[in-house]
Amino acid sequence: MFSWLEKNPFFFSLAFVFVFSIAGLVEILPGFAKTARPIEGLRPYTVLETAGRQIYIEEGCYNCHSQLIRPFKAETDRYGPYSLSGEYAYDRPFLWGSKRTGPDLHRVGDNRTTDWHDYHMWDPQSVVPGSIMPAYKHLYSNNVDFDTAYAEAYTQKVVFGVPYDVENGVKLGDIRQAKSLFYQEAEQIVHDMKSEQVKEAFKNGEIKKIVALIAYLNSLGQSRRTSQGE
Ligand code: HEC
User: Fold this and answer.
1) pLDDT value for 227
2) Ligand 1 center from residue 72 Cα (angstroms)
3) What is the model's pLDDT at position 228?
4) pLDDT under 50 in the chain at which residues?
């Protein structure tokens, strides 16, 4: 039936390119459509959480951790309800990850607490004997960068239309308001932490990177689905 095609190198090449581009098109075309609609009640990241997300990226946590729970029983039993595309609507860039040296973190905020992270990030083996995760002690002495995080959240709002400053939603405000909200939110985390070093620094107006990272880890989970509390 296709013998005529086999005798026409030009059309054969065209047919070849078409057939082999189908898988590529299937992957590429949805990207041009409107981006994933947020699931109901999903709130954007606060500035402190955004700062934590930047730390997660700069430390390369995604090299060992995924954030995508697949719809298989083994995964949902271990990590919680499987991930939905609309949960990533405000994630730029995505942090799905491709390797699981450690567990998936997409719902870690539902089952771990601030003080657990505090002990774990300082010395993973102290809470999980035999853990091969590295310690992140430098996050307890380096300060978080408010300006970059604010700039990112502001960009998300202006360029991508992420709904900050809507009724009952996450307040971004101008840079002064944002900074005071940033401190208020950090205060809560610092309060729940045990580290004297971090508490002492906070009294002097410094917010350590670990505080933002924990705020971000706490936001990963179903709790971020609604600002009204689910
Ligand atoms: C070299 C690989 C590696 C890197 C890099 C890494 N982790 Fe881990 N992580 C692990 C392993 C392995 C575990 C499981 C053992 C444990 O809990 O310590 C783990 C566990 C965790 C847990 C506990 C999850 C749970 O549900 O029990 C959290 C939270 C976590 N990592 C956060 C981070 C963060 C944040 C970073 C970046 C600052 C990071 N990890 C970097 C390997 C890694």
Assistant:
1) 47
2) 22
3) 42
4) 227-230
**pLDDT value of residue 168:** 83
The pair of three-digit structure tokens given for residue 106, joined into one six-digit string: 């997409």
118 neighbors 214 (Cβ within 8 angstroms): yes
- CB atoms inside a 10 Å sphere around CB 210: 28
**What pLDDT score does 120 carry?**
98
Question: For residues 76 and 137, what is the distance between their CA atoms, to the nearest angstrom?
Answer: 32
pLDDT digits (tens, 9 = 90+) for 143-177: 999 999 999 999 999 998 899 999 888 999 999 99
Contacts by 53-60, CB closer than 8 A, 24 or more apart: 53/95, 53/216, 54/145, 54/148, 54/149, 54/152, 55/139, 55/144, 55/209, 55/212, 55/213, 55/216, 56/95, 56/213, 56/216, 57/93, 57/95, 59/136, 59/139
Alpha-carbon gap, residue 213 to 53, rounded angstroms: 7
Pocket of ligand 1 (CB under 6 A): 56, 59-61, 63-65, 101-103, 105, 108, 112, 124, 128, 131-134, 136, 213, 217
Atom 15 of ligand 1 has which residue's CA nearest to it? 131
